[in-house]
Design a protein that fits this description.
The protein is 29% helix and 29% strand. The protein has helices spanning 19-31, 45-56, 92-103, 123-132, 167-177, 195-202, 238-250, 269-276, 321-329, 350-359, 392-404, 424-430, and strands at 2-4, 10-13, 33-39, 60-65, 68-74, 86-87, 108-112, 135-140, 144-150, 159-161, 183-188, 207-212, 216-222, 231-233, 255-262, 280-289, 292-300, 308-309, 332-337, 364-368, 371-377, 385-386, 409-411, 434-435. The protein has a 4-stranded mixed sheet with strand order 22-23-1-24. Strands 2-15-17-16 form a 4-stranded mixed sheet. It binds shikimate-3-phosphate. Shikimate-3-phosphate binds at residues 20, 93, 166-168, 171, 192-193, 318-319, 342. Residues 20, 93, 166-168, 171, 192-193, 318-319, 342 line the site of shikimate-3-phosphate (S3P).
Length: 436
Amino acid sequence: MTARSGRPLVGRVRVPGDKSISHRALILGALAVGATRISGLLEGEDVLNTAKAVQALGARVEHVGAGAWQVDGVGVAGLAEPAGRLDFGNSATGCRLVMGAVAGCPIAVTFDGDASLRKRPMRRVLDPLAQIGAHVTQVAEGGRLPITLAGARDPMPILYRTPVPSAQIKSAVLLAGLAAPGTTTVIETEASRDHTELMLAHFGADVKSEPEGAHGRKISLVGQPELVPKTIAVPADPSSAAFPMVAALLVPGSDILLADVMTNPLRTGLITTLREMGAVIVAEEVRHDGGEAMAGLRVRCSALRGVEVPPQRAPAMIDEYPILAVAAAFADGTTVMRGLQELRVKESDRLAATADMLRINGVEVEISGDDLAVRGRGRAKGGGFVATHMDHRIAMAALVLGLAADNPVRVDDAAFIATSFPGFADLMRGLGGDLE
Ligand code: S3P
């Protein structure tokens, strides 16, 4: 796919449903007894793989209309052994969260995924799940997929300190802890996205979250609850909204409205950073649903300046660094993003892939340790052919770069965009973007 600069971006759009909430709605729906109705589910490949997985584990999953799904769950610890292996495609979130749910059930399940997911570290969830009583019977070298996990017969409640700030690790432990008697506690030194906690509370679980240290949280969950099925309206995904948002900031004359974007403060690090850079992003129509806040966001083309992004902000914008780096290239002055070690273990080594994407398009960047510095010159040459490494966010960030650069930008493979943002190219074209 190729993106080139042209007209201003104008109009009102709603990006697809939030990926994190969509995975969790399916999984908690499968662990509740009765019918959970979901609207606005992200129908991207990652989430569809989770839908197939919970169905293979015994839940009834029905597609009742566009974005509308019903899950008839089997109850906490009620998952059944599937007939074959579960394939999570490109999605670590689906895989790691379902590992957590399986760990509390006396069943054996084989987890697998595509070439990108097979490279990603899984010990980070297998270690705490072993403390709960699950054990691994088969695993590829380096703690990688494919992995066969035997869930615990008598799951134990644990207290676990996450070694890296990761909502996936926290969520896997909490989902396993649902099946254990007593209180499961997770302590994180940097707060990560809290959708699992909020949705568990929405489904009637007794879950408490308290501050821990300067930036952390302590989450306690009382095990063996009866989860009550709920209606869930999935808000628009802020991590997807990030792409048209930055495109509108960069393309002269642009003025767009992004409808219903989730504004959970543990997801809005990008908006905070862009505002510090001088971006005009105005929140309109703020409302709450199912424990989550959302708002319409009006975004106008803005002159940006370079800033320092502190490491503590990383968990609240962990998926947004590739697109922030694109914004930084068009800013005036250098932007330094600190503490990016977790980017090395995403769908690709995103730290290297982001730097390469910018370099090949004439932008000066430097990686030093876990920090990325981008030298902004108010414009970018473009003209590059970008290697996306099976990574949807590298593909979309590169295409946004192309909408604002002096020369067209081409990506080698746009297919992975469908994992998180089906309809991305059509949505951008609808705003006036030149993508082909
Ligand atoms: C996610 C958590 C993040 C994020 C991913 C979705 C989630 O991963 O990168 O896209 O839904 O819990 P980590 O928790 O491993 O940082």
